[in-house]
Amino acid sequence: MQLALFIVFGALALGGALNLLLQRHPIYSALSLVVVMMSLAVLYWSLGAEFLAAAQVIVYSGAIMVLFVFVIMLLNAGKEEQTQGSRTAYSVGFPGAAAIFCLLSFVFLSERGSLQSTNIGGDLSSAVDNIAVLSAMLFTRQLLPFEVTSVLILVAILGAVVLARREQ
Amino acid sequence: MVPTAYYLVLAAMLFSIGIAAFLIKRNVITIFISIELMLNAVNLTFVAFAHMWHQVSGQIFVFFVMVVAAAEAAVGLAIILSIFRTRQTLNVDEIDLMKS
């Protein structure tokens, strides 16, 4: 069951990411990122992170991607054109990314024995359910960082308003 | 039963595709989108490790990454908006005011 979920949605996420890479129009890249995020939400759920799966759908593919699509539509972004710089980027970007991928997967696969295998659903330390554990941690031990993020969001809102305001 | 290493390798694939897109794309919005892809890949490793160690701390970290990503998206898109307003282009090769 979990293997099937992993294969189907992992392949979907990978296909979406490759489509993001290959499309030349920003709107198609944004829409394929939505596919990646939705399939990652299913993978989070299969790893026992129900709250994060919901937050992924609502915050990422709901709020952030709507903002992206809105800006792409607003700026009327067209197809990107090939330039001299992009040819250099091709010759550096693909080998660099491949090297990083080889390094990371070599480390993960050689440490495969010490990494265990996963069961579907959550079995956290003293788990009653995922949201209860998460919110207990968030509102007791992590209360200060949690409050600081609200200040961060306030600053981000003010910054966005100031930056996007039309000059008088 | 799926080994945790498979999740990590999937996350590594998504992350390196994000790096490739970041380096190859010339449109500033697409570059920003690929940063979001890399953040998502890292979130997947956090969730996988949180599951492996039966600890909730990794999920807390993913929560904070999501909050920061939301703030970053708002500010970044506002910057892109003001760049487009002053320079009328989204191509990163043409935005080279700081290049001597």
Please describe what this structure looks like.
The complex is a heterodimer of chains A (168) and B (100). Chain A has six helices and one strand; from the N terminus they run ααααβαα. By secondary structure, chain A is mainly α. In chain A, α1 runs antiparallel to α2 (26-46) and α2 (26-46) runs antiparallel to α3 (50-75). The radius of gyration of chain A is 20 Å and the shape is globular. The mean pLDDT of chain A is 86. Chain B has a single domain, classed as Helix Hairpins (Orthogonal Bundle), CATH 1.10.287. In chain B, α1 (4-24) packs antiparallel against α2 and α2 runs antiparallel to α3 (57-87). The mean pLDDT of chain B is 90. Chains A and B meet through α1, α2, α3, α4 and β1 of A and β1, α1, α2 and α3 of B. β1 (117-118) of chain A pairs antiparallel with β1 of chain B, so a sheet runs across the interface.
